[in-house]
Design a protein that fits this description.
Blueprint: E1 3-10, H1 16-29, E2 35-42, E3 48-50, E4 72-73, E5 81-83, E6 88-90, E7 94-97, H2 108-115, H3 125-132, H4 134-143, E8 151-155, H5 156-161, H6 163-172, E9 178-182, E10 192-194, H7 200-208, E11 213-218, E12 223-231, E13 237-239, E14 243-247, H8 255-260, E15 264-267, H9 274-291, E16 296-304, E17 307-314, H10 324-331, H11 336-350
Parallel strand pairs: 1-2, 1-7
Antiparallel strand pairs: 2-3, 4-5, 5-6, 8-11, 9-10, 9-11, 12-13, 12-14, 12-16, 14-15, 16-17
């Protein structure tokens, strides 16, 4: 009998379309002789529906899950998945959340799956939530002895109550330029590079339109290096070769450069010494373990004159076949199909303990 796998994609997030395209890639790699797929889309308004993943979806077209598709009722407390019409879809053996950003990558969907007694692929509630909040994650990394950048956090309430004091705090801790970003976001949504004081207020307002708090962060000068981490069913971790983002015609590696092409080159793999690569792998594993990650993560660093500085651990990285996470494993000898198969096997092996 085939195992039922629920692919959950879309979501109430600014990264909705990114998730839809990720789902296209993952679906194409799953062994349909072993698994039966239940494709659950979440609309931009947050409605769960039964919608087949369209293999023609492309990010440039900004695909969206349709609110007209049949509504799915999640089995709180356990049991079978069903439609609002009453039709039963069966008991789910494993969920594969392919959600980016708030309401998916932040522990929300993992908590829902836990309440439904459905094991899931990848990271659980705590690791997802902490990694999503960049200021909270930095505290964990510092405690683990990993170097991170300096920053100031500005809450929405404080900013609109006393913007003058907040701006002074944001401008005073570091020389310009600085980066301003939502504390909890991904894919560089709402991120600005600020070169002078006159630009700071608008950048903070933009970041706060995406989250309850904004992170004002020092600008790190160095090579932007990433590596991928994969967990096998026996708990063993494999770290990929390193990749490098070389920004060419843009201010930084923003949403357009990541997903719409142009402005940045991806060197996969990149050139590091054996010592540098060994150090990078040690730091990636330390970051993965310090957050309590499970299944997968992409670890992002800057290589500076003083060593590696960790910028982020992404618990649900972009997962199209050409995204950095699978691309790094491809050059490391793990194909996209093998990567997806391993994540499913690890999720099944861990069961509910991964949640």
């Amino acid at each position: 009998m085939k195992l039922k796998i629920a692919l959950i994609y879309g979501g109430k997030s600014s990264e909705h379309s990114v998730s839809c395209v990720t789902a296209v890639g993952v679906k194409s790699a799953i062994d349909l002789e072993r698994y039966e797929l239940i494709e659950i889309g979440i609309t931009p308004a947050g409605k769960f529906v039964l919608e087949t993943i369209n293999p023609e979806w492309q990010l440039a077209d900004f695909p969206k899950v349709s609110s007209l598709s049949p509504e799915v009722i999640m089995p709180l407390g356990g049991g079978e998945l069903r439609l609002s019409s009453g039709e039963l879809l069966g008991k789910i053996d494993l969920a594969f959340p392919l959600l980016h950003g708030p309401n998916g990558e932040d522990g929300s969907i993992q908590g829902l799956l836990q309440l439904c007694q459905i094991p899931c692929v990848g990271n659980g509630v705590l690791a997802s939530a902490v990694a999503m909040d960049k200021s909270k994650a930095k505290a964990v990394f510092r405690d683990a002895g990993i170097q991170v950048s300096e920053h100031v956090v500005i809450s929405r309430g404080d900013f609109f109550k006393d913007p003058k004091t907040c701006l002074a705090s944001a401008a005073g801790f570091s020389q310009f330029p600085v980066f301003v970003k939502p504390s909890r976001s991904g894919s560089s949504v709402g991120v600005s590079k600020v070169h002078e004081l006159s630009e700071l207020k608008v950048a903070i307002e933009l970041a706060l339109s995406h989250d309850e708090s904004a992170l004002v962060e020092e600008c790190i000068v160095g090579r932007e290096i990433e590596c991928s981490v994969l967990e096998y069913p026996n708990g063993e971790l494999e770290v990929s070769l390193a990749g490098e983002i070389v920004v060419t015609t843009r201010e930084f590696y923003d949403y357009e450069a990541k997903y719409l092409g142009g402005g940045a080159d991806l060197e996969v793999p990149t050139n590091l010494s054996a010592q540098q690569l060994s150090e990078l792998h040690e730091l990636a594993i330390k970051a993965f373990r310090s957050l309590g990650c499970s299944g997968l993560a992409r670890t992002d660093f800057f290589l500076t004159a003083t060593g590696f500085i960790l910028t982020e651990v992404n618990t649900m990285p972009g997962f199209t076949p050409i995204s950095m996470y699978p691309a790094l494993f491809e050059v490391s000898g793990v194909s996209y199909q093998k990567l997806v198969a391993t994540l499913l096997e690890t999720g099944l092996a861990k069961g509910s303990s991964a949640i």
